[in-house]
Amino acid sequence: MQYLRNSIRVYKNKLIQNYFKYRINQGKSPYQVLFKPESYQILFILSHMRSGSSLLTHLLITNPQVIGYGETHIQYRSEADFRKLIYQVYWQSQDFRKLGDLENLKMKHKYILDKVLHNNKFLQKDFLKSENIYAIFLLREPQRTVASMLDQKPHWIEDDAVQYYNGRLSALEEYAQIINNRKRTLLITHDQIINQSQAVFQGLQNFLATQTGFSEEYKILKTTGMRNIGDFKENIKAGRIVRKNRELNIEVSPQALDSTNHQFQQCREILSQFCTTL
Questions:
Q1: What's the CATH architecture for 2-277?
Q2: Please, are residues 177 and 274 in contact by the beta-carbon 8 Å criterion?
């Protein structure tokens, strides 16, 4: 009986995967799928590790017009890779266990979300100029960020975290200048999500032109809390914004803070010139 159930499950999964692949591969462009008249918009969260990007992901995907689940780890060489993104998001972010889950086959969302936190994911960057690309830039001040990175990656020394943080913020500056379109870019900070939540929600709705708004509560996915997809600490599983920080017993040196604070202020200033702000 167990063998039969497993065989049915494998066959069902294969049917669903082939269904998604067929609709995606038959689209006239990487932003289209068969039977859907409107093109998708690709929505990137462009940020750095320990920025609150997993929280922002969950706040976004609770909106019925946005679908995603976290980091897909796709390396983008061209717009053609968006077919891979659409397939991966629809297959990985949804459940197909009961009859009611067939609703998830409709592929009716407006935005396909990916979260990109590392410089090696955009192998070339010209596609960022496409009118179908939207980007939310998310920054977090360095003291808490660096300490949190060292807590999550105990094999790192302080210089590793500083080098990553400064290098990532430099890349974010470059992305914003390539896109060079305030209508398709929004800058928010972790502090704004926590302390100015309603302004952030209104800003997200205005930026994305969604029919419904955003709120402090979000749905838990099958991928929530999974390593290599997003935050795996307990707070992300709360289903709502948690404003109290976890206790971290990690000190960041004054030298590291001088370097990262300078990079943070520079990045925020440059992004403010190219992006919509709250």
A1: 3-Layer(aba) Sandwich (3.40)
A2: yes
